[in-house]
């Protein structure tokens, strides 16, 4: 039975349990959060000051310590108020309530199924029971730091608010402090906290809305990014932990991807502004009100994204992609790439791929520091260790309706920065996590400053203006300040004019100021006032500005009159859809959607046609306009048969947003891009009513991967005999790619008991069990073609046939077994499947295969013989286990470990004696030890205990010494690229694939021995790779040096300092030396079996620089 949407969870098997749990919540002993334990914070030390000399910074810029532990710890983010006070988000719940699916595979299905925060609480209780109360022992909190004497160093530290320790809480990852009111994003709430008596402690706290953090997903993918936009709204972001929030009659449901939201400062009028993000940790507006974020990559060789956050935009990420081994459409369809031909049309592509761990973000306010910072964004690049982390700065350059990134540089480096912002005194403040990923209960904030800028008149003026405030100022002064060089001053002046209800002054400012930026603040302010007063007529003067000579005035005015739904603006907005400026066309189209007038459809269709795929932002705006103007598909039907592919594409994109069954009309479109876009919409949204049409369009002639997968998926979900026949015909054809044929075969194999996770896009979308006879009949009807093609296809087809009980496959399997051109693993699979089928020739085949030249075939034959004739197999097993070579020996030991007989124990005893004598081959020692661990024999246990006692005490590598040799490099490759729990490819690049957080590994097998490779995984701090180790040295003369180790031998160590200079220090002159930790997680071995670790070492050792 087809489940129309993964929200139809009554048949899911998991959420019924959750619903039952929730219905009984009043009967459950749900642990409630009492006071959290006081966190243990590291004590004061000189480390924070000593490491500063290793920071890279521009010439002429100074660095000083503003605060360090014990005044502050584990700083995730911070905010600066108008008085220069710093409020810091401190976290103490990492892995103590704020969890990560990589460490909890047992609840992954529950997490994928969850639709509400209550669902998440229910499955926590289901899995943890009373232990769920442990999640309340630690809290996240807000800390207020103040420099009361003006010397640039914090001397007062106050806990502004604490006790955020409910079971479902955290991380508290975003804060904004303004006029004594703090906004705090701490899943599941957006909090507003007030310090009415100005003592540094919030007396009042109010949840503005809740329902954020539907899932655990990955740690760090939290709620953050608080910033006030030029329109006076509060903007914030959430990672792909998702949300399900109700406010009045509005219901915002987005459980599977990250989003940017906005609301009024009192929390009202919540809107979901943009979606499709993975982890947009911080947000920043430029001077023209354009919103940007850095979005993290998915640890699969993809790159992080610098994103222009467009209203209504979808940037394409879905949380479920994380649990597809290849990340599904995100990688397959190059969603994360910048704009390119053939890209999915429903997304807003990123400006560029940039950075590795984007976190804190700020934009130049217009004053302070040096001219070098004018117009620059500052983006923290957090990579787990200070040696390759810091703050990038760059500029955006207009490109069509979007931007391109220019002037990129690593301005502040060698510091593990989590957040960055401009202080009121013109300096830059940066928070330092210190080391690692989990927090060490340390934390620092550093000030980077220009001494010359700090003394400048304008910087002193800005500091004074911000501290004094704006509400008391006269209208004339506020109008003048709206043209100030500093954006913070301009915005506060605008907001004060709005508070004073100065509509006339704002209108005059918008029309006649000599400053373009002041005019924009007039436009924004007048619209803000009209919105807050709920009186659009206040903004009526803006209509005339739609014809203004300044393109940016036209653009921002179009945006504002659209939001206010000013009907009088309709004629001018229609005209602006053909404006010469791309940004004007963008905002005019969005505005027409707000107005909802059908007369706009023709102009918007023309805009979509003229734009095509050349500018995705304008195409998106045209679609948003069409959806709003048309309101239903009935008003768009006339364009379905247009001769223009661009118009038909616009129809598909609009119908996707309308979730219209009319999408089915486009699955056979003559344009391949329109076809596949229709398929994406039908399958991914999903639009269940159009699914049969999509399924019926499948044929072996469909070769586009994205299209074919969704057509196959549609048939798999329908589950009819006709659908199975279509899948089987596709699998049997030589036309589709090997990958697609394997996918079709996989569907037939799993027909009877389909996974609850969708095969194509990974969403939780359960299907009921089906009759395997349907798949069997379809396979049998196409059996001849199934076994044509490459090695992988034939081998998989044979497995599927066996699984379906198709005995007719046996003769073909025998042919495959005899085909020496195939790989040994493939031939061994054929032999094993023949055993499953109970072939009448099995004894003969095993006998022959025992003498085969390939070790995989031989060892499989011996394993099978042990199952059916153990007495006959035992002498062969003994010989192989004690004297065999390679795979034969390894597999014989595995089989012996499963026999549980005295004879097997005797062989294992001999093997352990040889191991204790140091004569057993290292490549099979893991197989021997693991086989012996299963034995109940006292003799085996005694020898195993003696062997374990030989391991070096306290050496974390010693327990894994058997993993040095004997691994399967192919299996290790899968672990490296696909095992989410270790995410090797997240940080390391091989050839052109992977991250740049850690060293490149393309030639690691040539450069390093296996011992080094094992140590790097099991004890990453033992020997940190060159260019990644940070060191602080105190020499005998009392000098402190800090930097990156570039060279070291027995006599000296060479450091690269923050200024880029190489300084050599003789080791005999070193008094104290302290090394920073590796950014490699120290617990990787917890997520790997020893066999997997051995395979991973084998893969790394195989990397010799050749293309893999």
Describe the main β-sheet briefly: 5 strands, antiparallel
CATH architectural designation of the domain at 9-49 and 59-454: 6 Propeller
Binned, the helix content reads 25-40%
In CATH, what is the homologous superfamily of the domain at 9-49 and 59-454?
A: TolB, C-terminal domain
The count of strands amounts to 33
Total of DSSP H or I helical runs spanning 4+ residues = 39
Overall pLDDT: 92
Biggest sheet strand order reads 32-31-30-29-33
Secondary-structure-based class equals alpha+beta
Low-confidence stretches: 1-29
What is the CA-CA span between the terminal residues?
43 Å
Give the amount of beta strand, in percent: 15-25%
Oligomer: single chain
Query: Class of the domain at 9-49 and 59-454, according to the CATH hierarchy?
Result: Mainly Beta
Compute the gyration radius: what is it? Answer: 32 Å
Question: What do we call the CATH topology of the domain at 9-49 and 59-454?
Answer: Neuraminidase
Shape: globular
What does this structure look like?
By secondary structure, this protein is α+β, with helices and mostly antiparallel strands. Among the domains are: 9-49 and 59-454, TolB, C-terminal domain (Neuraminidase, 6 Propeller); 535-658, Leucine-rich Repeat Variant; 969-1026 and 1081-1101, Cytochrome c-like domain (Cytochrome Bc1 Complex, Chain D, domain 2), CATH 1.10.760; 1030-1075, SH3 type barrels (Roll), CATH 2.30.30.100. Helices cover 37% and strands 18% of the residues. The chain contains 39 helices and 33 strands. The strands form 9 sheets. It has a 5-stranded antiparallel β-sheet, with no helix packed on it. Strand 7 (181-186) and strand 8 (189-194) form a beta hairpin. Helix 22 (738-749) packs parallel to helix 25, helix 26 packs antiparallel against helix 27 (824-837) and helix 27 runs parallel beside helix 29 (855-868). It is globular, with a radius of gyration of 32 Å. The model is unreliable at 1-29 (pLDDT under 50).
